[in-house]
Amino acid sequence: MEITIISAENLCMNGKPIKKDTYVVVHTQSCTKFFTTSTEEEGGSNNPSWNEKFLVDGANCITLEVKCKTWFGVKSVGAARIAVSEFNLGGFAAENSLQFLSYRLWDEKGKRNGVINFSVRVVKAPPECESSVWMQVTVGENDAAGLVTGVPVFLNFPLNIPR
């Protein structure tokens, strides 16, 4: 899926609006893969905008964390943790469908601290990376056979399964 970090609204730190030096970090559930927007340095309002796109694959959950550069180092402003299933991507969203979403940000103390606006678009994997798995299974006491449809698997290498 393609995530576009659009903007944030009503960001505060120590009770004061944050006007510049903010950026967003997009984490996957394993925290081994993350993406970072550029720093919004223009200032002027506490509604920074980025409009930056990232391709996220194989994640069950993502965290969008807004951070701010201060004199004392980088501080977390707020974060939103979102299950990918909330985007209705499990085969229900059409390819290239675009959803615009807004989620509440929560600071480290568990208090509300602004909103993040982003979009999610379903992106089709290249044909050499896609595979559907079909297998025969035994169902019930009478050894009746049933057909199970697997979920497409997205890999970074071609899949060669003997047929």
Automatic annotation (TrEMBL):
It comes from the Eukaryota. CDD domains: C2_SRC2_like. It holds the Pfam family C2. Residues 1-103 form the C2 domain. One of its GO terms (biological process) is defense response. InterPro entries: C2_dom, C2_domain_sf, C2_SRC2/BAP. This is C2 domain-containing protein.
